[in-house]
Amino acid sequence: MMKAVTTSELTRKFGLLTAVNKVDLEIERGEIFGLLGPNGAGKTTLTKLLATLLTPTSGRAWVWGHEVQSNPHEVRRLIGIVFQDPSIDEKLTGREHLELHARLYGMRNGSQRRERIRLVLELVGLAERANSLLETYSGGMQRRLEIARGLLHYPRVLFLDEPTLGLDAQTRRLIWDYIKELNRREGVTVMLMTHYMEEADYLCDRVAIMDQGHIVALGTPESLKRGVGADVISLQVSGSRDLAELLRRERWIKRVEERDGNLALWVEDGESKLPQVAVLAWERGINIRSMNLEKPSLEDVFLKLTGRRIREEEGDSGEYIKRIIRSRKRR
Amino acid sequence: MNKPSVLTTRQNTFRELDAVYVLWLREVRRFFRLRSRVIGSLGMPFFLLLFLGLAPVSFPGMPTGRYIDLLAPGIIGMVLLFSSMGAGTSVLWDREFGFLKEIMVAPISRTSIVLGKIGGGITTSLFQGLLILALALPLGFKLTGISATPSLPSLTLGFLLALIYMLLIGITFVGLGLAFASKMSDIHGFQLIWNFLVFPVFLLSGALIPVDMFPRWLQGVAYADPLTYGVDGLRGCLVGFSQFALWFDFFILLGCSILTVGLGTYLFSRVEVD
Q1: Could you tell me which of A188, A185, A180, A186 has the C-alpha nearest to residue A163?
Q2: Contact assignment for A73 to B107 by CB distance below 8 Å
Q3: In what order do the strands lie in the sheet with A66-67?
Q4: What is the pTM of this model?
Q5: Is A104 in the B-facing interface, judged by CB distances under 8 Å?
Q6: Looking at the predicted complex, does its ipTM rise above 0.90?
Q7: Rounded distance, CA B231 to CA B206, Å?
């Protein structure tokens, strides 16, 4: 079956900088595909290449079977996009935005259009504020409206470029749920660019890790995390030496480390091993005071692959504003 | 789920027209929602008319001998110049606030985007031009129409022709504004355009002082200014007094509007949004 998105050695250079470097991707229909990487990894450039806003230096890309360079008009009809920076007109109401968008995308039947607008507004929980000007919306509400807008014209593929950047944790969680919901209800293929590993982990069926223009790893979040290593169980225990000796004999424990009364165990599939450890200790009459399971995160995956942390360059909340200013100056 | 399928040419044409309409609608809505800006921008022409109109200024060849009759068409021309340049350069603001990307990624042609912008600019400029015409009347402006003595046919014909000149001035400068905005990457050059292009165009057009009062070398420059013909045409239509024949003003303006709109469309079609 035709893929939702295919790229073949897709490359875009800006002068000496190669922002996207020979990227090969295949995104399945209906999946939520994540592109995870630090700021400047090339995620936004890749989005703009696929959305026909930039032309590739070399290589090719197809969206729903249409090549982006030779058939940009068709590609534009089939995609929805939520840009990293706000792209709204604050002097329009929510409904007017959606009306404008719908008609730009050729939804000329008035009653169908209104029904669709009602539906997407409900989906992002903005039905009650539809007739207010966007300048009265909070940042999270504006973002939700942009998501509704991106979805309005029945796109086949929805590109979300850092959809929760600069939003508080609660709003972020809300937007995640909207994205999941719309993927489920509309069957839309979602390509999500993010530098929040929790976001990629929570939402995505598959994740590609991008760094300096390259795709460095690709897989389901679970398989990527499994690739970096085991889960770690930490125990606080009295009589740790006895227990350590006992546990070293168990084959399913890869490694045991002992440090002033604390034990660390490296295991596969940590959740199912917790009770086993508890039972072993209990049989010997050893008293466990606390147990803690740590699983590897996508952050660990990135760290292992690149030697750096994803969010190393991310600072305080003012960073969002600074990035907008920087992106303006670059133009 | 709706199935996007390949569209016929006819459907496509309708879609493009629909896009022009909604983009026009957006411009008009924005205009009326920024009410304080509209009132603010009409302040200057109003006070110019009020205070300069009271001045006992006289130039040879003035039919009524009252300065306000000469001044009012000039100020209407100025209002059209300012508002249409503002509309053309509003692309820069759309870019600054990101909305341009939303329009640029839509499956419509760049020409439709330009037509929507120009249509919106003309509508709002015309509205302001007519408003200042209406404001000029209580300030003593004697509208006589296409001849120097008022009569119903003279007034009717004059008013209708004046609308055409206003339209042409609007188109010319929306196009020019769009051309400049397409070549600029941010709003910092805005002030530059205003002080080094828009103001000279206004002052050279003869809006305040008839061009034939200028020193000869400056007259040459004034004749290269499209607004000169706009102001002259408006005077011909509103007070029956013009330096050139009305058809001459008309064709010069028509040429200018085609030129600037062509240039604006061409430059805008090459804009990359990043």
Answers
A1: A180
A2: yes
A3: A17-27, A5-14, A58-63, A66-67
A4: 0.83
A5: yes
A6: no
A7: 7
